[in-house]
Design goal:
By secondary structure, the protein is mainly α. About 45% of the residues lie in helices and about 10% in strands. It is elongated and about 40 Å long.
Length: about 100
């Protein structure tokens, strides 16, 4: 399930979600995830939408259980053109950014 506000996170939990996707994460950034940890210290929060190699480590440092990789890693035009090595390169950069 996806959520943005604390109310939406609570609704997801009430419906039985084991983890909650926070979308769009770019809107308020890693600090917002830290703020959500206050009322939801034991909830697996997973930011999505705007997570990239430049901010993935910050999201993890601010309490994300995991992060997602979207079009910054897998650009639809690269898929359409079969540019698999370009996708692999960006995926490797994304993974390295979190170490």
């Amino acid at each position: 399930m996806g959520a943005f506000t604390p109310t939406e996170v609570m609704q997801a939990l009430d419906l039985g979600a084991a983890a909650v996707k926070i979308f769009p994460a770019r809107a308020l950034g890693p600090g917002y995830l830290k703020d959500l940890r206050g009322p939801f210290p034991d909830v697996a929060l997973i930011p999505s939408g705007g997570v990239n190699a430049g901010n993935a480590a910050d999201f993890l440092a601010h309490g994300a259980a995991a992060v997602t990789a979207g079009t910054d890693v897998v650009d639809p035009s690269d898929v359409a053109a079969g540019r698999w090595s370009e996708i692999a390169t960006r995926a490797a950069i994304f993974v390295r950014s979190m170490k």
